[in-house]
């Protein structure tokens, strides 16, 4: 039986999604909880990697439960949560078809990024938002975000993993780039058919640079659609603190 999981986690206490020697990642902790429940090794696949410090409201993962287990899919929720740290919670579990894959079946994702503009960052928001008390222009910020909509070559907004080749595809389509005011500052929401490594953080850092008057809007726009990077790369990568994986579409 293939089980699809929806889970949330607080990235402040974790070293990202991808398995690491420290074993303090979402994948490692989830695999241990599932394996302890099944009494045999279980491999868990996620919809994508989130970096250390990045949060998730609805990450999606899947695994194949062994044939000898006849648990109702929903019972995996309490079974896993009792074995996971409080910074990770499974929200839902359901049976899916054998051809479902958390990563390869995904058609899009939504991230949002929280910015706190208050003069003093509350200790209760530390690690949960990017503290930017310096004045920024919301109109420039919104204009810069809107410039990214549509299909573009985003190589300038992709960090390198070291496994890139000439065939690496840097084209992605963004369908949403919204700015919303909230009580403590701003929320930036990005939706697309996929995102490159650190792409959301690099886009966010760059549009903030524009909004603070440290980069012209047309210079920012010129970083889009430039194979070979003749005009350079994104000027700033936003910290992990304010980034949340909001949802995954299938």
List keywords for this structure.
single chain; 250 residues; alpha+beta; Alpha-Beta Plaits; 2 domains; 10-stranded mixed β-sheet; 10 strands
In short:
This protein is of the alpha+beta class. The chain folds into 2 domains: 2-96, 2-Layer Sandwich (Alpha-Beta Plaits), CATH 3.30.70; 108-249, Alpha-Beta Plaits (2-Layer Sandwich), CATH 3.30.70. The chain has 5 helices and 10 strands; from the N terminus they run E-H-E-E-H-E-E-E-H-E-E-E-H-H-E.
Any overview of this molecule?
It is built from five helices and ten strands; from the N terminus they run βαββαβββαβββααβ. The chain is α+β, with helices and mostly antiparallel strands. It folds into two domains: 2-96, Pseudouridine synthase I, catalytic domain, N-terminal subdomain (Alpha-Beta Plaits, 2-Layer Sandwich), CATH 3.30.70; 108-249, Alpha-Beta Plaits (2-Layer Sandwich). Helix 3 packs across helix 4 (199-211). The model has no long low-confidence stretch (mean pLDDT 96).
């Amino acid at each position: 039986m293939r089980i699809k999981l929806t889970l949330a986690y607080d990235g402040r206490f974790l070293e990202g999604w991808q398995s690491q020697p420290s074993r303090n990642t979402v994948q490692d902790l989830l695999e241990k909880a599932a394996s302890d429940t099944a009494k045999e090794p279980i491999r868990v696949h996620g919809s994508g990697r989130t970096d250390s410090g990045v949060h998730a409201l609805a990450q999606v993962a899947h695994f194949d439960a062994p044939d000898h287990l006849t648990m109702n899919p929903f019972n995996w929720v309490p079974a896993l949560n009792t074995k996971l740290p409080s910074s990770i919670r499974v929200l839902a579990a359901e049976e899916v078809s054998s051809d479902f894959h958390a990563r390869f079946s995904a058609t899009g994702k939504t991230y949002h990024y929280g910015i706190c503009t208050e003069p003093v960052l509350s200790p209760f928001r530390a690690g949960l938002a990017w503290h930017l008390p310096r004045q920024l222009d919301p109109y420039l910020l919104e204009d810069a975000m809107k410039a990214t909509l549509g299909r573009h070559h985003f190589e300038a907004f992709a960090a390198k993993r070291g496994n890139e080749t000439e065939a690496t595809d840097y084209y992605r389509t963004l369908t949403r780039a919204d700015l919303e005011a909230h009580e403590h500052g701003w929320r930036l929401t990005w939706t697309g058919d996929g995102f490159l490594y650190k792409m959301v953080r690099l886009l966010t850092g760059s549009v903030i640079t524009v909004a603070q008057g440290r980069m012209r809007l047309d210079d920012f726009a010129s970083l889009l659609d430039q194979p070979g990077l003749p005009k350079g790369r994104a000027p700033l990568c936003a910290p992990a603190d304010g980034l949340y994986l909001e949802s995954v579409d299938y």
